[in-house]
Amino acid sequence: MSVTSCPPPPKPALNKGEMTQLLDIAREAIRSHFSEALPRPPQLDLYNRKLLANGACFVTLEVDGELQGCLGTVTANEPLVLEVHNKARDSAYQDRRFMPLTEEQLSSLTIEISVLSDPKLLQVDSEEALIAYLEEHKVGVILTEHHSQAVFLPQVWDKLASPAAFIKALKQKAGWPINHWSPNVRVKTFTTTQIKGKYFSQFV
């Protein structure tokens, strides 16, 4: 069993003020769905270079503490402010696991934004080696094999504290048997910077 000594990726370098701006963008993206005006993307000249750089994120929505939507990307393809805007709307109205968010749910809605670091390839030669690494580093994980992929954010550790259970659930999410492993499995890890806040009932 070969265990990599690779440290976890550093967290994205965003401060509290910048994360708060992203939370406001997500709120506005959701609010605009219930407005008669046409939805508008964020005005780019209002934001600094870090928020305008291409970035990857997930937006997680909860109503009364229950998951209502969670969509995102692990690949930085467009400016972070636009990615947050789009993923907030997608999580609210396009996550097929849930009915679209309704106006009645807004007063109980919370929004969490997770900005991802660049995923780094982790050199492990077995599932046991990956579990050993995760005993020391509670990071986000991407498992890929051919065209199948599954992602868990670091927040999942709050519900699946055991690395073995974490990887088992991640393989199930990918549609693989729980005992599956092969030399074709690629592992990437990432960290996140997060912010969570209420939707704010005055927007309703």
3D architecture notes:
The protein has 2 domains: 16-117 and 192-203, Glycoprotein, Type 4 Pilin; 120-190, Hypothetical protein ph0010, domain 2 (Dna Ligase, domain 1), CATH 3.30.1490.150. A 4-stranded antiparallel sheet has the order 2-1-3-8, covered by helices on one side. Strands 4-7-5-6 form a 4-stranded antiparallel sheet, with helices on one face. The protein is globular and about 55 Å long. The protein has 204 residues and is α+β, with helices and mostly antiparallel strands. It has helices at 16-31, 49-52, 80-93, 127-136, 163-174; strands at 56-63, 66-72, 109-116, 120-122, 140-145, 148-152, 186-190, 192-198.
Break the fold down into its secondary structure elements and pairings:
Layout: H1 16-31, H2 49-52, E1 56-63, E2 66-72, H3 80-93, E3 109-116, E4 120-122, H4 127-136, E5 140-145, E6 148-152, H5 163-174, E7 186-190, E8 192-198
Antiparallel strand pairs: 1-2, 1-3, 3-8, 4-7, 5-6, 5-7
Helix pairs in contact: 1-3
Number of domains: 2
Helical content, roughly?
A: 25-40%
SSE order:
HHEEHEEHEEHEE
Output the CATH homologous superfamily of the largest domain.
Hypothetical protein ph0010, domain 1
The CATH topology annotation of the largest domain reads as: Glycoprotein, Type 4 Pilin
- Name the poorly predicted regions: none
How much beta, percentage-wise? 15-25%
How many strand segments?
A: 8
Looking at the overall shape, the CATH architecture of the largest domain is: 2-Layer Sandwich
Biggest sheet, strands in spatial order? 2-1-3-8
User: What is the chains' assembly state?
Assistant: single chain
The helix tally amounts to 5
Under the CATH scheme, which class of the largest domain? Alpha Beta
